[in-house]
Amino acid sequence: MFCLKQPTDGGWATEALCDVDATLIDHAHCEMKAASNVLSLAGRYPTDFDLARALTDLAREEIDHFQRVLSMLAARGVALGPPPVDGYAVELRRAAHELPREPFATALVDRLLVGALIEARSCERFKLLVEATEGQAEHTDLNALWGELLVAEARHYRTFVDLAVRASGGDRGRLVARLERLAELEGAIVRELSHGGASRAPRATIHG
Ligand SMILES: [Fe+2]
Ligand SMILES: [Fe+2]
Asked: CB burial class (10 A; 0-12, 13-18, 19+) of residue 31?
């Protein structure tokens, strides 16, 4: 899906649905982190009006997603708890730092590319969850929520890529080439996590 090089393995959705509460907790934290991330980026580049506008629009949507997942948790009588260590995001940022230095690839550009990959992976996994819950009466609400969010995260992926193209000077070809390189590294991180690798994060997470 999109630029992803490593599909999530077939058993992931089944595992995620074995503990829906844990999956929703992880999902809620992912939405909050997505909102915090774009707000922190907007605060770092406040003089770029168009960027700040696009990022704060994203933040508004991610907060809405967070609140909707929170409502699902509340309806199930489940507390959110503190966020776990996000091994996937940590490794992905580290991977971006390890990419070759190229003049157009500023810190902002690489952060936008990391954002694009996180959106792509979330979108892929929402799709798996939608497919796995299709027609299941006990998961009607979740199926609808994940179906709606996968469309939003797909749009966010495109927004991040477009913002990265703009921030890198407008050459889409060279930007996409860098995104493809980072996607290879992201695939390796996902493979490692799916085998219970370096991260302590549970396997059934929305990303990673
Ligand atoms: Fe979201
Ligand atoms: Fe998103």
From this structure: buried
- C-alpha span between 80 and 62 (Å, rounded): 17
Taking the centre of ligand 1 as the mean of its atom positions, its distance from the CA of residue 139, in whole angstroms, is 19
Report the separation in Å between the CA atom of 115 and the middle of ligand 2, taken as the mean of its atom positions: 8
Q: Which of 38, 5, 30, 1 is nearest to 182 (CA)?
A: 5
Ligand 1 centre to CA of 182 (Å) is 21
CA of 160 to the centre of ligand 2 (A): 9
- The secondary structure of residue 183, as a DSSP letter, is H
In the reported structure, the alpha carbon of residue 152 is separated from the centroid of ligand 1 by a whole-number distance in angstroms of 7
- Per-run averaged pLDDT (10 residues), the chain, 208 residues: 90 92 95 95 94 97 97 97 90 96 97 97 96 96 96 97 98 98 96 67 59
CA distance 114 to 162: 13
